[in-house]
Amino acid sequence: MKRGWVARIEQSDAGAVVIIGSGAGGGTLAHELTRRGIKVVLLEAGQRQSLATFSQNPGEAFGQLTWLDPRTQSGNWDPVKSYPTLPAWVCKTVGGTTVHWTGATPRIRPWEIRARSTYGDVPGASLIDWPIEYAELKNYYQLAERRLLVTRRNGNPGMPASNNFKVMYAGAKKLGYKRVHTNYMAINTRPGDGRGFCIQQGFCVQGCKTGAKWSTLYTEIPRAEATGNLDLRAGCMATRIEHGADGHVTGVVYRDAEGHEQRQQARIVCVAGNAIETPRLLLLSESAKFPHGLANSSGQVGRNYCHHINGFIWGTFSQPVRFWRGVVLGGIVEDETVNEPKRGFFGGYHLELVSLDLPTLPSVGLPYGWGRDFASIIDDYPNMAGMFINGEDLPQAENRITLDPKVKDANGLPVAHVHVDEHANDKAMRQHARAQATRMYESIGAKRVILSPTTPATHNMCTARMSASPRDGVANAHGQAHDIPNLFISDGSAFSSPGSANPTLTIVALALRQGDYISRQLTARKL
Amino acid sequence: MSEPLASRGSVPGRSLGRREFLQTTGILTGVLAAGSPFALLAPSRAWAVDLTSLTSSEGETLIAATRTIAPHDKLEDAAYAIVIRAIDAAAAKDEALHKQLKEGVASLGAGFAKASEDARVAALKRVESSAFFQNLRVQTLLVLYSTPMAYAHFGYEGEAFSKGGYVFRGFNDLRWLPEVPLADSGPVPAES
Question: Most buried among A487, B10, B128, B131, by the most CB within 10 A?
Fold first, then answer.
């Protein structure tokens, strides 16, 4: 897509800010910097799609948007067995994972960002508090919610109730839950900010063809381009961040769309490749000066990988639901989003609405099976209601991203290896959530409740975390690397702990905050 | 993955040309049920799927195996034949897969396709841990539920963008449970 006003930034331009990744973090930060007159090169490994090119064929859309480069895994969590090459389900396309996300935007809670103080010294966990005051984060949440036009915030109406939500609501009310509604959603219920409105297609994950759902692809990125300060390079995969003798980063090496090696000089580098690729790139950038990878004097790069406790719960009923009609995630139960250790675990979880299209449900949404019993679940497809668990998992030092010693990608570089062993707390929370969700559906007459195994992580966090002390993490409270002042972490990797909220809103809030910080530092000539 | 029937090369009622006939190694045939929505669209209720790497007899065994993996009694055989066609096409391009399928089919025995369901389940359980079975199971789930026959059979309406979504076409038409108060949901857009 050629645009007349798009900037061409020379590769030798050492004044440019280079951002790696164009999703919620990188795309938002690119807009924040370019609108203030700062030149930005935005490297994106994937290709550019548009509302017109989004496929409405679920299998094809998956292939069009998903990050399918090889990854390896180990540990005791389910995806090691069920999805050995796909630990995470994230995007490789301009707009990143904001193209397939479902638009749910709850906030992390005040007690969740004080994770270590709230939960205490939990054996096996590597908890820390966020180095940010909640009052400040809250200001940026409000800015982010205005930017994304989040429902139920700032006077915006809520999403209307779908069939699937009516089932969730009735069950939740039977159990006495109080905070049950159609979720906080970055999906327009009426046209606004150049985006269309939701026509309840149910195809949120395939790319929203009305643009009702916020994505950097058609909001922040074209606005950044319109400033004349953005040079977006799609199909360009960063392979190494380079540094000078003083330890400051000086540029980024990448493979262009034709596979040729290129080198872009930089004044500042911001990494926003999602929480698996971000630490991988830092580790790949090892050098004589930084033998364990960039920004890794603490040894924390890649550690503390968090992915949320997830899992589907399906209820089948004797009457139709047709849960494929309507916005996918338009429903939430917030009552279990509390820290009550008497339930048998620390932290809280959300139950959120979900549906899956017919081609996807049998392969992704159901436990392993075949034969009469398995097929009988699918026979009830029109009478099925669904929700999923979104709970806080505990960070652990050994749950981490490393470079695979054997497997290489198309560029000959080691792929990311993901190791996850579940903490006893994770298992106890999942068990509680499954029991509550089952009670919800059974209380209103479900014929059967089906529990899925853990699916590939759509929420990936904490692998280059912010910390007050440089010993405990990779970056300071602004996502600025403790070791390298002109290197920033600009995605969910920077979370100090995962909380129980879907991460996109928090990633956007932190990107807005980081944009303020970088531009202030540039003005003050501190960067 | 839900291509129209014709693009999968299984056009109901079509006749094989001589050149195509020479390239095929097997054929699966059947007749759409009289009440099937596809019977109304097709020039003939008879359908045929050409196989290019598997024999007719291997195809029949695999159809019986996919029906045992995902048994939906009233779902058209044509839907299962599309699974076999996809597997056959993949095997034509991959000699290791071709060998795996031939050996897997042989391991099920000559009488598999005509055996009782209990006997077929027992035979598949014996090979459940094999790469042959697991590949067949995955392909069955991926392809079968993407077919237009499966959409029609299960009442799944699929993409709705081309029809204006479901906002005015039943996204909230459930009436067997109470309505949600406005405070916990939001207004339905007005139809103009």
Answer: A487
pLDDT tens figures, A357-394: 999 999 999 999 999 999 999 999 999 999 999 999 99
A361·B145 Cβ contact <8 A? yes
ipTM above 0.90, yes or no: yes
In a domain, A434, yes or no: yes
Tell me whether residue A404 is in a domain.
yes
Given a contact cutoff of 8 angstroms between Cβ atoms, the answer to whether A44 and A220 are in contact is: no
Residue A4 maps to a domain: no
Residue of chain A minimizing CA distance to B146? A359
Domain coverage including residue A68: 17-53+60-523
Best A324, A361, A370 residue to mutate vs chain B (most B CBs within 10 Å): A370
- The answer to whether residue A285 sits within a structural domain is yes
Cα-based distances in Å from A473 to A199, A274, A324, A333, A506: 43, 17, 42, 32, 18
B181 close to A (CB below 8 A)? no
Question: Which residue from B minimizes the CA distance to A188?
Answer: B189
pLDDT tens digits, B4-36: 333 333 444 445 454 445 567 888 888 877 777
Q: Give how far B26 is from chain A: nearest CA, Å.
A: 27
Q: What is the pLDDT of residues A137-161, one digit of tens each?
A: 999 999 999 999 999 999 999 999 9
Q: What is the CATH number of the domain that holds A223?
A: 3.50.50.60
Number of domains forming the structure of chain A = 1
First vs last C-alpha separation in chain A: 33
Q: Which residues are B14's β-sheet partners?
A: none
Decide if B6 touches A, using CB distance below 8 A.
Answer: no
